[in-house]
Amino acid sequence: MRVSLSRMSLLAVCLPVVAAIAACSQPPAPAPAPKSETPVQSPVERGKYLVTTGLCNDCHTPKKMGPNGPEPDMDLELSGHPEGMVVKAAYTPAKNSPWIVAGLGSLTAWSGPWGVSFTANLTPDPNTGLRSGVWTEELFIKALRTGKHMGTGRDILPPMPWPFIGQYSDADLKAIWAYLGTIKPIKNHVPDPIPPVTSR
Ligand code: HEC
Questions:
Q1: What is the residue extent of each domain of the chain?
Q2: pLDDT tens for each residue of 141-190
Q3: Pocket test for ligand 1, best of 55, 60, 101 (most atoms within 8 A of CB)
Q4: Which residues neighbour 49 within 8 Å (Cβ) at sequence distance 6 or greater?
């Protein structure tokens, strides 16, 4: 018993050494595989890709009626809730209704327990959009990371999915900012949110 135990411990000591020697005597690793064929994207191209796949148009582009219902009207790309579609009050669900959220036909305004939210104008319009001089790239990133309006103000309201969008890397958020500076500027003054009905 004593012999076999000490043999085992000898083996335990020797085996890693043997493995290390074996590793040292391996032939050199083969040359790395050639890099993928994906072309290098500029920040604006990357931003366009992220905005398109990140669903920003779903909420920030007003809809027009298509054969299967509302579809983004790309002539109004990312211009936010149309100022002409005036909403005066939140939707009040019937008592005991399981439905708590309502969306306008443009899918740019939502009513829910948070009141009514209107999607922002993300175009570079110098008066009403993201290049109005009030926003900067830094504030844009801060808002999406913190969920605070312009990075410091009130909470950003649902259904803006900032907890997810805010997880893009700095480079990706900068790319989104860069792309948003290149789209067609559209003058559209989005209204402020309407506070919730307190008696609900
Ligand atoms: C599900 C709907 C939805 C999607 C998808 C969405 N947004 Fe929004 N977004 C909103 C709403 C609603 C608001 C207004 C929120 C408010 O007033 O508090 C908003 C506001 C914003 C604001 C202004 C934030 C602030 O500080 O007031 C920015 C910037 C923004 N969105 C960028 C984006 C970008 C970029 C994408 C895509 C990557 C995107 N959003 C996708 C609904 C959405």
A1: 43-180
A2: 999 999 999 999 999 999 999 999 999 999 999 999 999 999 999 999 99
A3: 60
A4: 41
